[in-house]
Design a protein that fits this description.
By secondary structure, the chain is an alpha+beta fold. It contains five helices and 23 strands.
Amino acid sequence: MQYRLVSFLALSLLVTAGCQRFPDEVTPQPRPVRVTQVSAQGALKFAELSGEVRPRVESRLGFQVGGRLVERPVDLGQKVRKGQVLARIDPIDLNLQESAGKAQLTAAQTEAEQIRLDYNRALELKSKNFVSQAEVDRRKAALDTALARVEAAKSQLGVQANQSRYSVLLAPDDGFITGVEADVGQVLAAGTPVLRWGQSSSMEIAVTIPEGRVEDIRQMGKADVRFWADGDHVQARIREVSSVADPATRSFSARLTLDTIPDGVKYGMSAVARFERKDAKTGFKIPLSALFAEEGKSWVFVLDEKQGTVSRVNIVPAEVEDNQFIVREGLQEGQWVVVAGTHVLKNGQAARRFIEPTKTEQAKR
């Protein structure tokens, strides 16, 4: 009897379970997508380049003669005046050479004076027919040779005197010491750089231009320069662009001349140069994140707010600059283009525009 009761209860449960209705299938919610509304206008082409404040005239200064460096009274960053002593080398050997040159000149002058006296005696004797004309000519040639040796000795003494003066390195003009490349005690060959010197009357911004932007930036010509130290903005113009790329970075060095030099700006400071130019052609500027490739073509997703769906649209990027590209064909004024998450979307998928919550809404969460 108990067995029949248990079987009856089990069968009742199965029938009851089979009579329950399953809930309706859940309708997928539209996917929120980040979009930007495109507007056709003359595209603003721009570029921002990091730079450094440098002097227009900067030279590596060294001695014209070799020797041991015995004094360097200036340091990095120091302001110097024209003619100020920057460094000295040991002048002992140079002074000895100058002394030897003076002695050689004195000997040549003494010898020339003796030969002159001999020549004058020969002329007197010739007037009395005691010597021949050939003897007079010989003594005249000897005198000319002696006088030539005097001139050679004077020139040699001038060279040695100059070398003695070259033992002192002087500032060529007012400026700053921008680098130190040798210190006291070093034995230097002629021409070895000792200091780097920059002229104080000119100041420029040194930048490097990527090889793909050289012509664009050259055409822009002018830039707005901002200094990191104090935030001042100064207008500048391109003075020169190198015609040869750096072999390591494949970029081109350029110099910008400042219209004015703000107070407090010093050599070596950092700056940012922003170049801008309005493009005469109209187009739509869209982030690169909106672009995806499929079937060998370029596409973007466009959101139709009325239909609540996204559809892919074939476009042809006209130009790429930094992290954006310009489209001149394929889009229409006012369309909403998806700018993020295109890799998870499908053509015709339900979607809605994502609206960033306000700070108040974020605080409530």
